[in-house]
Amino acid sequence: MGSSFYRNSETCILVFDITNKDSFTNVENWRTEFLDQLNPPDAKTYPFLLLGNKSDMSNDMQVTQDEIDNYCKEHNNMPFFMTSAKDNINLEEAFNKVIDLAYDRSAKNDENFVPEVKNLKITQEPKKKKKCC
Length: 133
Hints:
The chain has four helices and three strands. The protein is α/β, with parallel strands linked by helices and about 130 residues long.
């Protein structure tokens, strides 16, 4: 995709399918590609979050918890959440963790500006027509 797509990223979410061993194997490729494109000065400690999706299908799990734990430990104790997009399991917790990781990284790097959004209006109020005479 190119480095412009990754520019100013404060964290990265890596997602694999727990019922597909190849998707777990590819996590390292995706992580490496992301770091190559972003080229952050803190590549060894750059914050990632790992999600194992399809927890609703845990009976078909092809990746062991030990494999996941070892991967996370080898990569700066990467946070991990078992999720299900289908059943909305652990998604809010995972995204709250991403927010925490991004905020912590941004707070350490003063050159990045994190805007604060207040009173965001999604819809505009209809304009009032001027009456003549």
